[in-house]
Amino acid sequence: MDRAAVFDVDGTLVDTNHLHVTSWWEAFRQAGHDVVMHDIHRAVGLSGHDLIAHLLGEERDTGQDDRISAAHKTLYATYADRLPALPQAGRLLRTLAGQGWTVVLATSASGGELDALRRAIDADDAITATASSEDVDEGKPAPEPVERALELAGVPADRAVFVGDTVWDMAAATRAGVLAVALRCGGIPQADLEEAGAAAVYQDPADLLARLDDSPVARLRA
User: Fold this and answer.
1) Alpha helix segments (H runs only) across 31-125
2) Are 205 and 87 in contact (CB under 8 A)?
3) φ, ψ of residue 203 in degrees (nearest 5)
4) What φ, ψ does residue 14 adopt, rounded to 5°?
5) How far is CA 185 from CA 19, 94, 190, 207, in A?
6) Residue 4: which residues within 8 A CB-CB, separation 6 or more?
7) Rounded distance between C-alpha atoms, residue 88 and residue 150, angstroms
């Protein structure tokens, strides 16, 4: 029977979360906002405008949102040619694909940013499809990105696993009825990931790969 492994990308397969934090911090600073980096880090994983709303509040001057988001994109783009994949990220995707899994990415990235992330992972031969921010109306923690990934894979929720690194990932997966597995390489504490719905937590892609046969993923054997 078909089964799908759906992956977040930033902080899960590519070590970019702190690059996003720095870029958002500078974008906020340029717009006259003093936002603590710790708070930005905990918001990474939300879509751009949701992240701005989360950090500045609903009473903010929303006329600044597009300018802040554009500044973040410009600042983050300076890292595009040297994004570091996390340990064994590409090998994990290839291993799952080799075992018959349909591998799908579900990410808020799109366009050139997504292209740079895929170059970093260097496993396009294992990736069947990608659900990007351009494919959904609502980003995580809404379930829509995960549900769109399932549509692309052609499998029901009970035949899929979602791997991510933030509480927003875990919330999106559980709301979609998908088994949620978390990685700590994005910098979020294990207790927070478990509280958000993670069935299991691993250090990084290499740790999940090494323990794959004993992981909750093994429950979905073909």
Assistant:
1) 37-43, 48-56, 65-77, 89-98, 111-121
2) yes
3) -70, -45
4) -130, 135
5) 13, 20, 10, 10
6) 101, 102, 103, 104, 149, 150, 153, 155, 159, 160, 161
7) 24
Check the CA dihedral 100-105-111-114 and report its sign. Answer: negative
Give the pLDDT confidence of 37-93 residue by residue, as tens digits. 999 999 999 999 999 999 999 999 999 999 999 999 999 999 999 999 999 999 999
Residue 145 near residue 120, CB atoms below 8 Å? no
Query: The pTM is what?
Result: 0.96
Task: Residue 141: name the closest of 161, 108, 163, 167 by CA.
Answer: 167
Tokens standing for residue 61? 């001057």
Per-residue pLDDT reduced to its tens digit, 32-45: 999 999 999 999 99
Sheet-wide strand order for 4-7: 127-131, 102-106, 4-7, 160-164, 179-183, 200-202
Buried b (16+ CB within 10 A) or exposed e, 88-115: bbbbbbbbbbeeebbbbbbbbbeeebbe
139 with 51: CB under 8 angstroms?
Answer: no
Query: Residue 76 and residue 96: Cα distance in Å, rounded?
Result: 30
In the chain, beta strands by DSSP E: 4-7, 102-106, 127-131, 160-164, 179-183, 200-202
Tokens linked to 221: 């054997």
Task: State both tokens at 34.
Answer: 């003093």
